[in-house]
Amino acid sequence: MARHTWPLPVEDDQVFSFFLFDQLEYRNNEGPDTFSWDAQGWIGGDYNRFWVKTEGDDNSFGNDGGEVEVQALYSRLIAPFWDFQADFRYDWLYGDHRC
After folding, report:
1. Measuring CA to CA, which residue among 55, 69, 70, 57 is closest to residue 96?
2. Residue 82 half-sphere exposure toward CB, CA atoms < 13 A
3. What average pLDDT does the segment 86-91 reach?
4. Nearest CA to 56 among 10, 5, 21?
5. Across the strands, what pairs with 78?
6. What does pTM read for this prediction?
7. Are strands 82-95 and 65-79 parallel, antiparallel or unpaired?
8. How many CB atoms lie under 10 A from the CB of residue 58?
9. CB atoms closer than 10 angstroms to residue 59
10. pLDDT in tens, 3-21
11. Is the separation of the CB atoms in 27 and 34 below 8 Å?
12. Is residue 53 within 8 Å of 24, Cβ to Cβ?
């Protein structure tokens, strides 16, 4: 095929998403029942993405409280394999875990 007959490149701005649970468990031990999780995910394209990361332990079934961490991040590609992230993070301790 001659070079002058090639089609023009296509500029794509598709939106992709990803979500992963590394840990999602409920434990019913001799002590208090515990619900634990560790998850992260993103939505966006090749250059800009919005990330959400969260992890925590909830012992509220036994009224022991728990702890939660939630992060919201904006990610921007600045070079191949390198990106810049700015985030907002919220940590919450409740119940008997308070100092």
Report:
1. 57
2. 3
3. 95
4. 21
5. none
6. 0.75
7. antiparallel
8. 19
9. 21
10. 678 888 777 788 999 999 9
11. yes
12. no
